[in-house]
Amino acid sequence: MHPKFPQWVRALLASLLRNRFLMPVPTLEMSDLHHLNAVLGWLGLGSIAEARAELDAIPPERQSHPAALEAHWLLCAHEKNWRDALAVAQRELEIIPETASGWLHRAYALRRVDGGGLAQAWDALLPAAEKFPDEAVVAYNLSCYACQLNQLDRARDWFQRAVKIGKKNVIKTLALDDDDLKPLWPEIQFL
């Protein structure tokens, strides 16, 4: 996988490739894995057209595999095609509701899609905090949304949860490079 992708994306894709799912999902062929790896490589290089061609090379009957959906969502996000990203996230929630990725992707897309916004993203992701209490990225994103909604006390609480759940130094480094949390930077810097 391309090194520009955050560790949580790489870990999620690895997990999707090896886990069993609640619903039957198509089995990927070796050539599909090659195409998925190429999608990520092309995206890492900023070559969206090539990434799209690699994703399209996966047969339609295997496009609903969780790893293919993850790659499709990443492609939509790179294209800033939030309407399609939202549709892919909805499909992820249908197929793999037991993972946080669909919840995170739906909230991320809802924040950016026409007619969406921060409040919709917050509302969409909040139930995931109860469903996935050990997912630091859920708490982290809720902190970002609360901060941007100017609910700083709530943002602090969610950020502290993220730090408690995840690796403090990793979360701190991410936060100090994340404009969503800029109002909290003076506090975060001294963690």
Molecular structure report:
- This protein is mainly α and 191 residues long.
- The chain folds into 2 domains: 117 residues, no CATH class; 59 residues, no CATH class.
- The radius of gyration is 17 Å and the shape is elongated.
- The relative contact order is 0.09.
- About 3% of the residues have low confidence.
In a few lines, what is going on in this structure?
The chain has 191 residues and is mainly alpha-helical.
Walk me through the topology:
Layout: H1 7-18, H2 30-44, H3 48-56, H4 66-79, H5 82-95, H6 101-112, H7 118-131, H8 136-148, H9 152-165, H10 168-175, H11 185-188
Helix pairs in contact: 2-3, 2-4, 3-4, 4-5, 5-6, 6-7, 7-8, 8-9, 9-10
Low-confidence stretches: 19-24
Principal-axis shape: elongated
State the separation between the terminal residues, measured CA to CA.
32 Å
The biggest beta sheet is recorded as: none
Beta-strand content: under 5%
Query: How big is the Rg?
Result: 17 Å
Q: Would you tell me the overall average pLDDT? A: 89
Let me know the number of strands. 0
Number of domains: 2
Order of helices and strands: HHHHHHHHHHH
Helix content: 55-70%
Look at the helices and sheets and give the structural class.
mainly alpha
State the helix count: 11
Essential attributes:
elongated; 191 residues; 0% strand; 11 helices; mainly alpha; 2 domains; 68% helix
